[in-house]
Specification:
single chain, mainly alpha, two-stranded parallel ribbon, 13 helices, 56% helix, globular
Amino acid sequence: MEELKKKSKTSVPFSSITKYEESLLEKIRQKTKDMNLNNVTRTKAYLEFYLRYPDIHWAFLGHMVSRNGGWNMTDLKGEFLNRLLARKDRQLFFQFLERGNWLIFQDVYPQFLLYEESLRKKKPLFHLFAHLNISTFMGTIWNHYWQTNDTYILTMALVINEQNYLEKRVVQNPQYQKDVLNKFEFLLQDWLSFNHILFPYGNKMLVGLTVHQFESLHERILLGKRLYQLLFKNKEIHQMSVEWTKSHPHTGSRKDYWPDIFNSVNEGTPGLPYHLHLESCQLRPGAKRIYSPTLENAWKNEIHKEAEQGDWFSDWRIVDYLMEDDEFIDGEIKDEYCKTLERLELAALAKKAITF
């Protein structure tokens, strides 16, 4: 990690590039743009890359977390939040989620494509990261991975990188601070299923974790480390998760993992009073399923302004996060998640729109 110490003190100059490298960078930019249309295309791209290169563990972790991003986006047009949040607030919240999802993809996917090309060429091409606005931190780490095949360090470095990448661009962005984070802090922490990250596997089984202190960079990095452990430490859960993702294409609807509770078609009758659906995490007798639309039916594709320039990496001590933890993560989430759904239902029944 001596190299990171050096790089944290100096800016890395652009290297001159060959015609082949220029053409390669253009292809990478175009392919990233094509796959970065919306949450569904991103999530699919992560999984396809992981199935080609199963040593790149972050691609599967990114796929699973991105599925949750999609479910959060469609919740804003689903059964409960449609009743509880004003349209303008739902739009703001969607743009906040979408921007973060878009930013991470346009930073990490070019890294994957350059790794793929390095394998083809049988030589590392990570010096080209600077031309794609990718942190010098990741250039050092990918070179380390090329020599050592240390999947844990690579995965943790990607977790650290993506959360730092979002920090100034989204979490500390004054507009999002004002319009989303300050406004929705109570909702994020206490009400919504936004603070649950769920990993489905097997037959309607779930593990996951609850997000606390989303605004803390430190807490988000630790959460990423724990989610990784949950998904990769238990070989059986990992294998069943991968099989589940292959047989359940991501649509953004929560029907993907609980079709007996959620449906992407609205089964409710307009104008009729609201009735409770759930009891102890099961549908009540005769109750309709909870409406959870697909992303395609919930939101149009956003046009994004270019990612803000700049390298977050300035303090080499961030490498402390690369140390492996032996913390046991049990991942029991179902009861907590069911309680959240029941709270939302009661609020929807009371029809007390949450206003700010």
